[in-house]
Amino acid sequence: MAIGFAADRWWGDPARWHPVAGFGTVAARLETVVHRDRRAAGIIYTATLVGSTALLGVTAERICRHPVTRTALTAAATWAVLGGTSLEREAQQVARHLQAQDLPGARTQVGRLVGRRTARLTESQVARAAIESVAENTCDAVVAPLLWGAVAGVPGLLGYRAVNTLDAMVGHHNDRYENFGWASAKLDDLANYLPARVAALLTNLAAAPGARVDSWRTRKIFGDRHPSPNGGQVEAAFAGALGVRLGGSNDYGNRVEERPVLGDGREPGAGDVRPATRLARRVDIASLAVGILAIGVLARRGRRGGTHGS
After folding, report:
1. Contact 245, 272 (CB under 8 A)
2. What are the residue boundaries of the structural domains of the chain, listed by start?
3. What is the pLDDT of residues 129-184, one digit of tens each?
């Protein structure tokens, strides 16, 4: 896992033949066949794709029994499912546009990170969108897959990424996906419940020394106000750590959501996006340490159990 993490830090996502993009293509094609405006259809769709992806991981681990091939397999799977470096690079591009006072360019760039309409966003709203994306995806793209990998190996890495990708594809509130995407959205909420809280705690710890208390306090006060059971935890922790206020009105085209305000700081600005990416990087590294620690604890318990059983 550490090798895969290092590969993501060095190279980011593959420019071509990305396995997650391939999974998305398969999922989109299957959707055209099985889509129905019913929850049952969505449950079958989600179970088929997540189950088959996790089974692929189980099969790969059984084939790769030698320590060298197992290490290579786990490193490759970790690299494939992580997205922290690409997220950081995209957010830094937003910061460059904002600091150059290129608001149209910043609007276009932040549209690569968020699903809301960005054509009329103000500078502060662009910065807010970028910070919210960095915060939420620090959990989704790094902390959660590492924790699932620590607990369940390659099947955990691949299975989690399948869950999260399906939520991004069909877990939306609109006429097409309100029912069909329900299972994917709920499964993603479940898969991220503990990782989001770990990510929020790591954000509290990774904040600058003078901001740690504010990060903790903001998460405790505002974390549960977000419509997502998980997204608000990390976003509120980031808001407190950066001394800004997140949340507000988001226009998704088919609807406008009034998100609760997270934090009691100032409105975010152009100078807050880069600090958010630096904070995310520290959280990423801390989550790798937590994952490795979890692997060590689980391995130690496994050895004790084996000794007791013999």
Report:
1. no
2. 2-309
3. 999 999 999 999 999 999 999 999 999 999 999 999 999 999 988 899 999 999 99
User: Would you give the distance in Å from CA 208 to the centre of its chain?
Assistant: 22
Beta strands 256-258; 249-251: pairing state: antiparallel
Distance CA 79, CA 7 (A): 6
Amino acid at 170: V
Dist CA 66 CA 61 (whole Å): 10
38 phi, psi to nearest 5 deg? -145, 145
**Burial (CB count within 10 angstroms: exposed 0-12, middle 13-18, buried 19+), residue 16:** exposed
Q: Cα separation of 4 and 274, whole Å?
A: 24
Full-prediction pTM beyond 0.90? yes
pLDDT digits (tens, 9 = 90+) for 14-62: 777 889 999 999 999 999 999 999 999 999 999 999 999 999 999 999 9
3 state DSSP class of 181? coil
At 303, is the pLDDT very low, low, confident or very high (cuts 50, 70, 90)?
A: confident
Dihedral sign for Cα 193, 163, 281, 110, please.
Answer: negative
| Residue owning tokens 């903790």 | 216
CA–CA distance from 229 to each of 21, 165, 196, 197, 206 (Å)? 27, 18, 9, 10, 22
CA distances from 108 to 46, 103, 115, 129, 175 (A): 32, 9, 12, 12, 26
Beta strands (DSSP E) in 161-306 are 249-251, 256-258
